[in-house]
Amino acid sequence: MKVEHRLLTHGICPIDGRIDYYEIVVEASKLVKVEDIETAVSYHRGTIQTQESMCQALFAEISSAKWTLIGRHGTQTDTKVTCG
Asked: Structural domains in the chain?
C-alpha cells in the first residue's frame, strides 16, 4: 500500500521575514491518520523557521511517513526538502 497526502501551508523566513508558501507531500506505506497530519502541520503553520527545520520538525512528529516540502522563495527559487 502507498498513501499520499497533499497539503498547503506557509511559514515565515527567518532570514528576510517574508512569507514562504509550501506544498507538503506526505507519503506512507501504512495508515497515518489525516487528523494527525493536519494537527502537526497546523502547529507549525505561520511559524518563523526555515523550510528545512519545518520539514525536520514534521518528520520528528510523524516519523512513519516521508515528508516533502516544496517551497517558493521570492520569485525565482523553488526548493524541495525531503525527510524520511
From this structure: 3-83 (3.30.1130.10)
